[in-house]
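debug: dumping io for the single-chain case to check the tokenizer round-trip. Nothing else runs in this session.
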Amino acid sequence: PQRVLKGQEESILKQHQANASFLFSLGKDHTGWALRRAFRPGFFKKVSRTSVLEHYGYKTLMYGVMLPAPDIGKKCIEEMRATKRAGFECGVHCWDHVVWQDNVRRRSATWTQHQMHAAYERYQEIFNAPPKTFGAAGWQMNPHAFKQLDAYDIQYASDTRALLKADGSLANPAAGPYRISHDGETFNAVQMPTTLPTLDELLGVEVNGIVLDDKPFTQRIDPGVI
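debug: decoded output
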């Protein structure tokens, strides 16, 4: 969500006749701030399966640290509009991915509304229409954020995840859309839990005897078994 690859995703999806929703980070890219997660338990186990430098690039990892944080909503406005023109649904991911993911769970209503309003306003500047869908950075939310989704008339969101087994299948096959309740209040926005793993969660994992990496899948299939 933080980076737009100038139409590569759209062309791949169209090639395979697959639809998708694109949720955009719309403010500053402070990816470099995420390096402090290296001090959290489990971080090195996660990145040992992937190459952080290879997949993000040195320049991106320096955003907000040694390099100024670029404004995604301004720098990538044409790529975002092209995604919409290509027929894909677009929505809000966040204003600042790292800031939201690392802070929202313990922040106030004022802080939460400020972050969401900045993203909401920028989305309207880009697409000349209000967003109808939202997906929180890192699946991190608080009650104020759920309330704000209703204030913006967000119809559905993907702010939660469904538990998966090691092979990627649903732990609960019946997992599906639902509405969240908190302190006796049920929010209107329908939550559609994310069920697929992220790319970095897949890389290096063995599934049915195949270790998933960043090579084209066809290179790992024995033609004799097709």
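debug: round-trip ok. Residues 109-127 form the longest helix (19 residues).
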